Amino acid sequence: MRASVRAVSGVMSGASISTTAVAANDLRAIIAEAIACEPFNPRALDRILRRHPKDGRGFYTKREVLAAFRASAAEWPMAEAAFTERLRTTPTRTLSGVAPVAVLTKPFPCPGRCVFCPSDVRMPKSYLANEPGCQRAQANRFDPYLQAWNRLAAFHAMGHSTAKVELIVLGGTWSFYPENYQVWFATRLFEALNDFGAGVDRRGEVVEFAPDFSGLALGSRGYDASVAGHLRAGESGELVPERERGAWGTLESAQRANENAGARCVGLALETRPDHVTRDEVLRLRRLGATKVQLGIQSLDDEILSANQRGHDVAATRSAIALLRGAGFKIHAHWMPNLLGATPASDRADFARLFDDAAIRPDELKLYPCSLVETAELVQHHARGEWRAYAREELLPLVADCLAAIPRWCRASRVIRDIPSQDIVTGSRETNLREAAEALLRERGTPLAEIRAREVRGGASDGGALTLRETRYATSLGEEVFIEAVTPADRIA
Hints:
Layout: H1 3-12, H2 21-36, H3 42-51, H4 62-71, H5 80-87, E1 99-104, H6 132-139, H7 144-157, E2 164-170, H8 179-197, H9 223-232, H10 248-258, E3 264-272, H11 279-288, E4 292-298, H12 302-307, H13 314-326, E5 330-335, H14 344-356, E6 364-367, E7 372-373, H15 378-383, H16 392-405, E8 411-414, E9 424-426, H17 433-444, H18 451-454, E10 467-475, E11 478-486
Parallel strand pairs: 1-2, 2-3, 3-4, 4-5, 5-6, 6-8
Antiparallel strand pairs: 7-9, 10-11
Helix pairs in contact: 1-4, 1-7, 2-4, 4-5, 7-8, 8-10, 14-16, 16-17
């Protein structure tokens, strides 16, 4: 990583280094003691930091120590990689060897009319301004280059490798955005990775993003009309101004350059609706560089889909998955219990269809228990007594049963939406719902087969004891083969 990236990464992560001689001496002392300390662990580091307080009051952060080490790495007997390993913060972020970089598209009209969906006009449809990822997007004015570059800088400042990156594009229905905006957005993401990997910082060249959505309020016209009106009130008077219109040739050049970049994209996930997946859309997604599609299934019951005004039926879901699977995409399905018209019993039956139906069977899964937010139409149904949130004693066993039913070839990547508690009118506010569900399963003596629960992750494994295991299962297009290297205890290495 070149010096220019080193210099700015601390600033972008909020870790500004004091230039006083006292601070410099303190940091050198901390680094020297951290290198010499054996055995080294978080408690040992804590003692070292306490021996050298910052300004006599607070404490230096690990980011500050790491930035100071990088600025003088040649002077120390320990390699940067080894020292970084000691100080790395939030290690679970990149335990898989890939840095996940989530970015949001700008607020834009949505084709959906789902009764459960929030309508925060400051965000893409279905997202809320108080969600952590949304706050980062808004701080970067929804600009793809700024979002990606700054996120990589934050990872670097925390000691994480940014050599392999998974780009995760969130926000409304990707397929509903104009094609030239999609091309521009993807191009700028690849350019951000290329620049960061080369130690180049072009953030100062980003054109001021307008209009500003931060002060926009939901008007009586609803989300789509309010957002569209605000977009057209910008300097160009168009939904997509000239500077947000990309060219396919430029994107392809950025993709080719990224094949050997210092921050290489090893996966690009885009999210859309089943009724927007056509043959032409599949080709466009592939050309954009996508490898995974997050698909809003929500339910496999036509009556539930209709009651919630989802706008498509189960047949559309099956068709979309067949098209995506046939083109080699990884299928990342979203499923929601506690929708309008559902019961815990019907949800259990519905969840079973995800894997009983050979036309579905996703590779990854997000479970999003429905929560009521005040800008959703579901509020009216709740007021009339037509919908209620499941009580904990209903929801927790349901989630546990769902996790236990996921086959070994599928990963449950999320169990609850990261909706801030202050935005939830009623519904689960239990941010560690997955942890509670897994604890319940342990009490029952029920093992988990899904990928995330069986990963070795930060632990060690004996390579000589690993076994290659194949699991075969049918889909509507043929046979899938899931291949994994497992330990004698059936942990995935």
